[in-house]
Amino acid sequence: MRFAVPVFPGSNCDEDCAKAVREILDRPVDLVWYKNGNLDPYDAILLPGGFSYGDYLRTGALARFSPVMDAVAEAADRGKLVLGICNGFQVLLEAGLLPGAMRVNDHLKFRCSIQTLRVENNRLPFTGLYEEGEEIRLPIAHGEGNYYCDDGTLKGLEERGQIAFRYAGENPNGSVTGIAGITNREGNVLGLMPHPERAIYGWMGTDDGARLFRSMLRYWEGMHGAA
Amino acid sequence: MVRLEERMMADRVDRASENEPGPEEIRDRECFREVGLTAEEYGSIRDHLGRLPNWTELGIYSVMWSEHCSYKNSKPLLKRFPVEGPHVLQGPGEGAGALDIGDGQAVVFKIESHNHPTAVEPFQGAATGVGGIIRDVFSMGARPVALLNSLRFGSLSNPRVRYLFEQAVAGIAHYGNVVGIPTVGGEVEFDASYEGNPLVNAMCVGVLPHEDLQKGIAQGVGNPVIYVGSSTGRDGIHGATFASEELGEDSEEKRPSVQAGDPFMEKLLLEACMELVKKKILLGIQDMGAAGLTCSSAEMAAKGNTGMELDLDRVPQRETGMTPYEILLSESQERMLLVVEDGREGEVREVLDKWGLQSAVIGRVTGDGRYRVRQKGRIVADIPVKTLVDDAPVCYRKGEEPEYYRVNADRHPEEKWKECDPGEALRQVLASPNVASKRWVYQQYDHMVRTSTAVRPGSDAAVIVLDGLDKALAMSTDGNSRYVYLDPRQGGMAAVVEAARNVVCSGARPLGITDCLNFGSPEKPEVFWQLEEAVNGMSEACRHLGTPVVGGNVSLYNESKGTIHPTPVVGMVGLVESRRHITTQEFKREGDRIFLLGETLPELGGSELQLVLDQKVSGRPPRVDLEKESQLQRIILTAIQKGWVSSAHDCSSGGLAVTLAESAFGTHLGAKVHLRTKWDPLVMLFSESQSRAVLSVSPEHAEAFAGLAEAEGVLCAEIGEVCREYLTVEVNGQPAIDARVKDLRAIWEGAIPCAMNPFSTN
Question: At B689, is the secondary structure helix, strand, or coil?
Fold first, then answer.
């Protein structure tokens, strides 16, 4: 299973994502420059956190026009796994690969802390190794993680099991019904504000993020065999 | 006759604009005073040039000779710092200092102030302070891995102070978060003396393999000088001079002296420069920081024993009609100056293009020792470059012991507090913003990006692990300005030893420091006395601990409504030999034995308790015994390395009571403590005697640990054990504190959010 981490000008969690894949999954991973429009050699795409294009205009608003995003859309279409973390989630929303939009945190400040989340659906390619309803701890670090969608969209997300994670206890940004991460209808594209790549060893404060990467590998190997 | 000659010479170097005063007018109307130069300094400039300087040249000298760039008031004192050691790869004089950490790796670090800009425009002022220090570190070739800061503000009851604090923190957060460097530590103090003159000191730590170490020098006659990054605008003109004056009524009008930051551009610059370093293309690299293009280019030429010729028409500009004076003195942010071998411009261009950065060859290295600047084909400045850097005036000032220092010798604050209940005193001290949790601050900083933060903000020191190595770096910023005010020598020592103690409590061996000296006007003899005494104390402590000063910054003229407390800030870096040694301050296990190391004396001058009870400080601060301090640090580190220590927390602000409470806050644990002392309970619990720490040790190692302390001659008392939920303290068999840790924590965590939101009904 080969991973690609697209790098936009201003991405700053690209190395962290690649490190998680190398160290937790021991699988090949490449940083792919945003001008590269070909992601054919890869089985999974990790859109990293950071401030693509300085997040000027609106978070993720400029990155979605990069050539690599056409390739990401194509990969998503072909059923490859696409994971957008933090700014990556914002880019997926701007690109229309996930429904809804992101607003500034309701308290108007950037917030970095380890939060408790509830796994809402463990039948996704990204969550297979979690228990349904399990509470896990993952770090967040964002100024705009206040996810919003209209009531109709929310109802659809809930009915189709597209809500992967919700904040349990404190909602750190004011997102609709405490949503922390959602998938597309098909379940192969996940966007989440928390950073699983920052939670892969105990010394980081929590290693609950490691299972997210392991779930992806298990799912893919279940479909394609170990390769 | 001489005059006529001078005039003729001056005519060869052109006036750049009709709106500027000409050379004679500058002399006759004494225009040099407008740019902060004295008549004597103006005289030296005439001597150096052998003619009258024009306005552009005057501007160049004024910034290069400002305190900010030349350290003219502090240079004689800075020489007292120990700067050498077997592990020093780069001492003061470059963008940042560098220390060997073994395995062919080095740590590069520096702290710098951005006080004056923050006072007038807190968001951008603080943000650009962070930007500048990051560039200082990556201009050495190092990958920045961590940021820290040290902040001082007036009382949070003042709405203007709340605005400054809120905006400065937001600015620091914004810049570091966007660039993607974790802000892992820092400190904040509140005191009325900072009311109109807040302090923002930012520190950056980087790591590099030895062979990547860069220098800011211009070498090789004929080599191109390349400008990279943002275009030059009219922002920040005379920032360095502004930073070297007192803040006054008109400071608000100096907003244009404050630059605006673009952290996105910084991130691109950082990555591009890292690529250029790895490709080994660079001969010299320097940040355009204070005094902008002038300072970086002149310093590079002076350090390289060369000269430089610049053509200002080639400098990327974001405004039209800029004069040479404006272009040279602009402090527009996110700009770097590179010198590469002639013919390799294309390779540089290729890397910069990838990152979408503009660049231009704006000049050449020359061999004639001149700093020559052209615009529109005319020479607008022609100066012997060494006179800008090496011949900057030095002021030998004399200090004078202030009246308050003499008076304080007879003040003994603790005598009148006998009535006070220790439990209530603890609640009050925990609610003091100086002691209270700084979570409100550090939650706004991304402190986890780069996934190397092993000890996050809130413990004694932050710890960053190093990729591919078992080693880690511990780092801390410290400085108690109340101690320094009461006794600058003792306070200076305390800043160094406390920083070292913090690093040791995290499991590291202290390596070296960077310092930021924030003081008032050196022209006041009592302020100069504070500066001199503090430097002496710091130097002595650094010598004793074997931690050289490898770089730093001086910020004088911190005056608005009176002088600030003298505030030397120490940024200490230490090496953790193995990740297994990483230790935090929180209790870990019920049943662990609690030890108090060091001697408690009635030392409450400058203490947090004094501030809370008296609203002002007096007396003498705690004394530092350097021999005792190094013994203490030695046994803490030994015990940690032997694996005996569950938690370690140094005793500082708020004394033993606060140390115990903070050790309990990280977990659901508490402590049952019995103290035996000849002092009053309040003294025992709140004295801020130095060279003390609280450790929790697993029961099976308790005996060995006590034995180690005894063998090393460190006073060591087993004072209790870790238990659940409650903090109970008895002094000489009498109950002193009995509280639920949860309740104490609520006070401690709520204090700053509450103060920042006084109208909240929560």
Answer: coil
When mean pLDDT is compared across A69-78, B96-105, B253-262, B682-691, the lowest value belongs to: B253-262
Instruction: Decide if A16 and B174 are in contact by the 8 Å CB cutoff.
Output: no
Q: What pLDDT, in 10s, does the model give residues B473-511? A: 999 999 999 999 999 999 999 999 999 999 999 999 999
Q: What is the pLDDT of residues B302-358, one digit of tens each?
A: 999 999 999 999 999 999 999 999 999 999 999 999 999 999 999 999 999 999 999
Q: Is A54 on the interface with B (CB under 8 A)?
A: yes
Half-sphere exposure of B464 (CA within 13 A, CB side): 27
Give whole-number Cα distances, A188 to A94, A185, A200, B556, in Å: 17, 8, 22, 59
Q: Enumerate the residues of chain B whose CB falls inside 8 A of the CB of residue A33.
A: 354
Distance (Å) from the alpha carbon of A192 to chain B's nearest alpha carbon: 16
Average pLDDT over residues A155-165: 98
* pLDDT (average), residues A93-98: 98
Boundaries of domain holding B342 = 1-66+214-392
Q: How many CB pairs under 8 A join A and B?
A: 83
Give chain B's mean pLDDT.
93
Residue contact B446–A141, C-beta within 8 A: yes
**What sign does the dihedral B722-B728-B731-B735 (CA atoms) show?**
negative
Residues 134-193 of A with CB under 8 A from B: 139, 141, 143
Q: Which residues of B are catalytic?
A: 68, 114
pLDDT of residue B237: 77
Q: Minimal Cα distance from B183: which residue of A?
A: A112
Tell me the Ramachandran region of residue B607: left when phi exceeds 0, alpha when psi lies from -120 to 50, beta otherwise.
Answer: beta
Residue B419 binned pLDDT confidence (cut-offs 50, 70, 90): confident
B579 to chain A: which residues are within 8 Å by CB? 203
Taking contacts as CB-CB distances below 8 angstroms, the residues of chain B near A21 are none
- Which single residue is written with the structure tokens 């009524």? B249
- The total domain count for chain B is 1
Q: In the prediction, which pLDDT does B762 show?
A: 43
The span from the CA of A200 to the CA of A203, in Å, is: 9
B376 is in an annotated binding site: no
Tell whether B355 is covered by a domain. yes
B568 located within any domain: no
**Domain contains B326:** yes
Complex ipTM value: 0.97
Query: Is there a binding annotation on residue B333?
Result: yes
* Mean pLDDT, residues B401-428 taken together: 88
Distance from CA of A158 to the nearest CA of B (A): 31
Q: Report percent pLDDT > 70 for chain B.
A: 94
Instruction: Give the residue with greater pLDDT, B129 vs B249.
Output: B129
By Cβ distance, the residue of B267, B444, B579 closest to A12 is B267
B contact test, residue of A8, A12, A13, A200 with most B CBs within 10 A: A12
Closest Cβ opposite residue B177 in set A110, A195, A205? A110
CATH number of the domain enclosing B275: 3.90.650.10
**CB within 8 A of B136, min separation 6: which ones?**
B95, B96, B110, B112, B204, B287, B289
B18 is a domain residue: yes
For chain B, what is the radius of gyration of the CA atoms? 27
Distance (Å, whole) CA A204 – CA A139: 9
B139 in a known ligand binding site: no
Domains of chain A: residue spans and CATH = 3-224 (3.40.50.880)
